[in-house]
Design brief:
There is one protein chain. About 35% of the residues are buried. The longest helix is centred in the N-terminal third of the chain and has 30 residues. The chain has 10 helices and 17 strands.
Length: about 425
């Protein structure tokens, strides 16, 4: 495409300018007259290329390409024939949702939903687009937009250990081996110093199995048929944001507080957690913070995060240690510096219980948490319930299960001290 040619020419001009700068820096001198003329010419060329690219991006926005991902795909020339299959280069922002090489010609997500509602036959002709549990598989070009996973939008998923679904049976049960740390921090493995020629001791680690079976999590909303037909560009942004926030909120709540029945097993109900009794009812004290950290797995200090109810914030803002030093650091979110509690990042949320309730403050290392993806993400659009009112129910869903990768707290090498990557204030 013409845009790719412009991008290549721009890169070549930048590289040529950098070569001149590197040369005069290495020789510790100023520009020669010829070099100055060439650098000025290259700068003008670069400015011209950037102007051309900005103009093209503006044209794409006018055509209905609303997101950076869509614009990037359009500029790079990704083919989008209906039902075509092409590898997707980067799925990092849709963590856990593996690309299937399935793309369509739809310009935005709302247009895809429109066809799921009014032209389902056009999607059913592509067998890959129809899920075994109903609904139409979301094309790769929209997965990264709708399910964009960041530490701001999702608490557990971007920090958890992802377990891929089985090829052909994504919702099947999967058993993950885990060391039984109740038998010691190394799961019953014994280590000995052996004299020269001495007999090596036999060790047999104690193993547990953690079973993960993806369960459906879904969000739905109702829109008028008229809006779905006529306002797709604007509706698409709304649908993407609404479904993303609703589904990740439900997933976080389950992974943090779920009972494991038809949903992930949450940290708060895991047998691997350590509970710390609070010093005073309905409050969080400095002694609680200290006791929680002392029960936290030592190798998790650089990976852990506090997960805290927003209702606890007023108490943390005035909390001081024994030396009358404030323990809460507000940092600067505008500069990407998250708030911290005694040096460990803290996430304030409404996805855990309120102040004074067990779990209002948790200290977690989610690298010890398993998330297994199943079928999805998919979309359904049905007029049946609101047929007389000319309205459509849109449902977005996927299947997932999760559980801590431990079955009990860890016992340290001293055979006495118990710690856990999941510590909850009661």
């Amino acid at each position: 495409m013409e845009q790719l040619k412009i991008m290549r020419l721009k890169d070549e001009a930048i590289n040529s300018r950098q070569e001149i700068l590197d040369k005069i820096t290495a020789e510790n001198r100023g520009y020669t007259e010829a070099e100055k003329v060439k650098v000025d010419k290259l700068k003008n060329e670069i400015d011209g290329f950037e102007a051309d690219l900005r103009k093209h991006e503006a044209d794409l926005v006018a055509q209905g390409f609303s997101s950076p991902e869509e614009i990037k795909a359009a500029i790079s020339g990704i083919p989008a024939e209906l039902g075509s299959f092409h590898p997707v280069a980067d799925s990092s922002i849709s963590r856990g949702f593996q690309p299937r090489g399935y793309v369509t010609e739809h310009k935005n997500f709302a247009e895809f939903v429109h066809d799921a509602r009014f032209k389902p036959e056009s999607l059913r002709t592509m067998s890959v687009g129809v899920g075994t549990s109903g609904g139409f598989t979301v094309p790769d070009q929209f997965v990264a937009q709708i399910f964009a996973v960041t530490p701001q939008s999702s608490i557990v998923r971007p920090r958890a250990q992802m377990v891929p679904g089985l090829e052909g049976s994504p919702d099947a049960k999967t058993e993950i081996p885990a060391l039984d740390h109740s038998a010691g921090i190394h799961g019953g493995i014994e280590v000995s110093w052996i004299a020269e020629g001495g007999e090596k001791p036999a060790t047999e680690p104690e193993l547990d199995l953690i079973t993960l079976e993806p369960q459906e999590v879904a969000a739905h909303l109702i829109v008028t048929d008229k809006l779905l037909r006529n306002s797709q560009a604007n509706l698409s942004v709304f649908l993407e944001k609404t479904f993303r926030e609703a589904i990740f909120c439900a997933e976080d709540v389950a992974c943090l507080t779920g009972n494991g029945v038809g949903m992930p097993l949450g940290v708060l109900n895991s047998p691997a957690r350590i509970n710390v009794a609070r010093a005073g009812a309905g409050a969080v004290a400095y002694a609680d913070i200290a006791n929680m950290i002392s029960s936290f797995t030592p190798d998790s200090w650089t990976k852990g995060v506090w997960v805290c109810s927003l209702s606890v914030l007023p108490q943390l803002m005035v909390m001081v240690d024994a030396g009358n030093h404030r323990v809460f650091e507000g940092k600067d979110n505008m500069k990407g510096l998250p708030p911290a509690l005694l040096g460990i990042p803290i996430i304030f949320t409404g996805r855990v219980p309120v102040l004074g309730t067990p779990g209002d403050l948790m200290l977690c290392d989610f690298s010890y948490y398993l998330l297994k993806e199943g079928f999805g993400p998919s979309v359904e659009a049905s007029p049946h319930l609101y047929f007389k009112e000319n309205k459509t129910i849109i449902k977005a869903f996927h299947n997932v299960d999760g559980e801590p990768w431990l079955t009990a707290p860890l016992t340290l090498e001293d055979s006495v001290t118990q710690v856990s990557p999941f510590v909850c204030l009661l």
